[in-house]
Amino acid sequence: MRRDCETTGKRERHNTMRMNRACVLLATIVLISPIFVIGAEPDALAIAALDGLDSFDDSAWSFTKTTTGRDGSRIERHDATKPEGLRWGLVRIDDREPTPREVEKYRREKGKGAKKSDEGASDDPGIDRETIRLVTETPDRMAFSFQPESEGFASRFAGGILGTLVVNRDGGWLERLEIESRKELSPIPGVKLSEFHFTKTFQRDGDSGVLLPRSIEMHVRGRAFLFKSLDDDRVAHFTDFVRVRPSTTNSQ
Question: Do 93 and 102 meet the contact criterion of CB atoms below 8 Å apart?
C-alpha cells in the first residue's frame, strides 16, 4: 500500500511538472488564432517593434523581480555585476528573509534554469511575422493580431488562442504582448485548461532606448486527471533597473 502511494505521488509530481512546462511553452511561443484584421500585409511598425525585444540584454542590467501567486510571494534581485550563474539572488519570501534551506533550493532551481538555457532554450516568442495584421488604431497606439509559427508545439493549439500586440506610436516600441484562450485547451494528455491568459508589458529606458520588461501576468484555470487543480493567478513586476555595462546585442 505504501509503495502504491509513493508511486502515485511520484506520478502526480511528474504530471504537474509536465503541465508547468506546457504552460510555459504556451506562453512563450505565443499561440494564437486568426481574428478580423484591417491590414492586408505585415505591418512594418509592428515588425520593427518586435525587433526591439532583442535590445534587452540581462547581462548588462541589474533589476528586481517581485512575484506573487497562489504559492506566496518572493522578491529576487538580478545583479549583473556578478559572474554568470551567480547573478540571481533571493531577497525576500512571503515578506520575510529566506532561510538557508530556501536559499539553497532557490539556487538549485536557478541552476537548472540556466542549464536549460545553455542547452538551447529560446526566448523567441515564435511569432510568424508574415501573419501580423493591423486590427485597431488610435492616435497613440496600434493593435495587431498575429499567428504562431506553423510547426512544432504550436500546431496542436490551432484555433484555440487569441493574441495581440500593442505598439506605442511615439517611437514605435512594443507596450504589450497578450494571449488568451478561446476554448478549452489540452496541452498534454489528461490535462484540460478552461482558461488561460498571459500578458507581458514593457517599458522603454529613456536614456538608452532599450525595451525593458515591466510586468508579467498569468491566469490559469484547469485540472489534471480530473482531480488535480491547476488554478493559479501569478503576477511579476520588474523594477529598479540599473545599467552596469553596454549591451552585447546588436541593437544597442
Answer: yes
Residue 124, CA distances (Å) to 51, 53, 110, 229 in order: 11, 9, 20, 29
- Alpha-carbon Rg for the chain, nearest whole angstrom, is 20
pLDDT digits (tens, 9 = 90+) for 189-232: 888 889 989 999 999 999 999 999 999 999 999 999 888 998 99
Grid-cell match 516568442, residue found? 125
Q: What is the pLDDT of residues 155-170, one digit of tens each?
A: 566 667 778 899 999 9
**3-state secondary structure string, the chain?**
CHHHHHHHHHHHHHHHHHHHHHHHHHHHCCCCECCCCCCCCCCHHHHHHHHHHHHCCHHHEEEEEEEEECCEEEEEEECCCCCCCCCEEEEEECCECCCHHHHHHHHHHHHHHHHHHHCCCCCCCCEEEEEEEEEEECCCEEEEEEEECCCHHHHHHCCCEEEEEEEECCCCEEEEEEEEECCCECCCCCEEEEEEEEEEEEEECCCCCCEEEEEEEEEEEEEECCCEECCEEEEEEEEEEEECCCCCCCCC
Among 204, 242, 241, 244, CA closest to 52: 204
Identity of residue 216? I
